[in-house]
Design brief:
The protein is α/β, with parallel strands linked by helices. It is built from 14 helices and 14 strands. Helix 2 runs antiparallel to helix 11, helix 3 runs parallel beside helix 11 and helix 4 runs parallel beside helix 5.
């Protein structure tokens, strides 16, 4: 490449297209073209939620001014992002301490709000301590990679459907891994039994798997962990706030939290704000706090956000109204879709997935719902789910009314007929 050729493939002097062998723009264009050709190019909707009126929102993209829509795919499962206690706490913190945290936790970003929230989260899971991160992704990545590096020759046993953040953490640890078939405890035991009994082991799995809506056999996995002297790490991001008497997740609901060594969760789904965390013994938390780059070298959560989460966690520890309303809504929508003969996937949780099986059709259905019916649900495509299992993922909440569900079911049936898609034989 000559000195006058720039990295974007144009001559830096004349602006003419560069004719060398390496064209960076062409490489980037081809990468995006592949997504378009496979029907899985992602488009982000331009919306604003209406404060205090969720799931009502306003959509701006492709319209002359905002168009009212109903949101059906938010992970703010309990609408706590709109709760008066949460909003009031954030407003109070904003006027009390200002907007930003001021730095990393070890410099200027540690506030009384952070300390209080970590105490509340530790208490939520019956653990000695907890540690805040900027997101659930970072908490998984930082914790798993740090733990495995501290344990000499550690082997991580990972469920094949674990979230990308867990996979990233395991990869970044540099340790060996063994992938067991989804929720298959017999396969997990085969893998555990094949290793030296003195080798450090960590079993990493989720409680609720967010795309299928199924639940891990926690006690069976803990039995194997005890038998083979392995640590346990559970991702409860789609369960905290949602299950258990105080919102401690599936591990609380199933009376298994005391058997889990590390419980990871998010603050951006059922708790309605932003952030991630891990709860464990003081010793383990101190190690992560002291060694994890993802914690040490990043600006801490704004105290405004932490104050909002603190209000949300405290409220959901005391109130089951939101959880009960959400579970009732999920069950109702599931039955209404099945009654129409629509291909609802089996799920025992708050997630209601509708199988499509093709990325182009999934996007088409989503587009029609938004443009013609004012219904917003994103298509879920590869790599979030395996190819051929593309779907629409509905997350009905306590504020979704019966009338909204009827309208959604009717709209979906009309679109299914219009596109000549197959209905379920079980209907």
């Amino acid at each position: 490449m000559t000195k006058s050729a720039s990295r974007d493939g144009r001559d830096s002097n004349s602006g003419a297209a560069w004719t060398g062998t390496l064209n960076y723009n062409q490489i980037f264009d081809q990468a995006i073209d592949r997504l378009h050709s496979e029907g899985r190019y992602r488009v982000f909707i331009d919306i604003l939620r209406n404060k205090g009126a969720f799931p009502n929102a306003r959509c701006f993209a492709g319209h002359n001014g905002p168009k009212p829509i109903t949101v059906w795919c938010s992970n703010d499962y309990l609408a706590m992002g709109q709760h008066p206690k949460v909003v009031a706490a954030m407003e109070e913190a904003l006027h009390d301490v200002g907007a930003g945290s001021g730095g990393t936790r070890n410099i200027g970003g540690n506030t009384h709000y952070h300390i209080q929230l970590e105490q509340e989260l530790a208490d939520l899971h019956g653990k000695e301590a907890a540690l805040l991160f900027t997101s659930g992704y970072v908490s998984n990545d930082a914790t798993l990679s740090t733990l495995a590096k501290l344990l000499p020759d550690c082997i991580i046993f990972s469920d094949e459907l674990n979230h990308a953040s867990m996979i990233a953490g395991i990869r970044n640890s540099g340790c060996e891994k063994r992938v067991f078939r989804h929720n298959d405890v017999e396969h997990l035991e085969q893998l555990l039994a094949a290793e030296n009994s003195e080798t450090p082991k960590l079993i990493a799995f989720e409680s609720v798997y967010s795309m299928d809506g199924d639940v891990a056999p926690i006690h069976a996995i803990c039995d194997l962990a005890e038998k083979y002297n392995a640590l346990t790490y559970i991702d409860e991001v789609h369960a905290v706030g949602m299950y258990g008497d105080r919102g401690g997740g599936i591990s609380e609901r199933d009376n298994a939290a005391h058997r889990i060594d590390l419980i990871e969760g998010t603050l951006g789904k059922a708790f309605g704000v932003m952030g991630g965390y891990v709860a464990a013994s003081k010793r383990v938390i101190d190690c992560i706090r002291s060694y994890a780059p993802g914690f040490i070298f990043t600006t801490s959560l704004s105290p405004v956000l932490v104050a909002g989460v603190l209000a949300s966690v405290r409220h959901l520890k005391q109130s089951s109204v939101e959880r009960e309303g959400q579970q009732a809504a999920a069950a109702m929508l599931r039955e209404k879709l099945r009654a129409k003969g629509l291909p609802v996937m089996d799920s025992t949780t708050h997630i209601v997935p509708l199988m499509v099986g093709d990325p182009v059709r999934a996007k088409k259905i989503s587009d029609i719902l938004l443009a013609e019916y004012g219904v917003y649900v994103q298509p879920i495509n590869f790599p979030t789910v395996p190819r051929g299992t593309e779907r629409l993922r509905f997350t009905p909440g306590p504020a979704h009314s019966t009338a909204m569900m009827d309208e959604l079911a009717d709209a979906l049936l009309e679109i299914w007929d219009r596109l000549d898609l197959e209905l379920s034989e079980a209907a």
